[in-house]
Amino acid sequence: QVVADMREKRYAQEGIGSSYLFRVDHDTIIDATKCGNLARFINHCCTPNCYAKVITIEVQKKIVIYSKQAIGVNEEITYDYKFPIEDTKIPCLCRTESCRGTLN
Q1: In contact, 20 and 40? CB cutoff 8 Å
Q2: pTM for this model (two decimals)
Q3: Tens digit of pLDDT for each residue in 65-102?
Q4: How many distinct structural domains can be found in the chain?
Q5: Residues 6+ apart with CB under 8 A from 91
Q6: Are residues 24 and 53 in the same domain?
Q7: Tens digit of pLDDT for each residue in 45-68?
Q8: To the nearest 10°, the Cα dihedral for 8, 26, 79, 88?
Q9: Does residue 20 sit in the same domain as residue 48?
Q10: CB of 34 within 8 A of CB of 12?
């Protein structure tokens, strides 16, 4: 967590507007900010059509995105980021009927 926090601050100082950090478990956070596949651009939604799950293949943990329903051509893929609750709120822009209003 300490390294992730330092990277977030450094990215802000470098003018990088968004960081792509994914918590795998209590001790591991994957940083796809500067290097990663297109899944890092999957947006949050309060009523998502997918969910993220961490699985173990042999001894390596992987993040897998599973569909919750049929997804049409050109339909956006979304999942709930499940950010921890914090005092400083991040506005949610999903605009669904059941939007919580914030990501955290």
Answers
A1: yes
A2: 0.79
A3: 999 999 999 999 999 998 888 888 989 999 999 999 99
A4: 2
A5: 101, 102, 103
A6: no
A7: 999 999 999 999 999 889 999 999
A8: -50
A9: no
A10: no
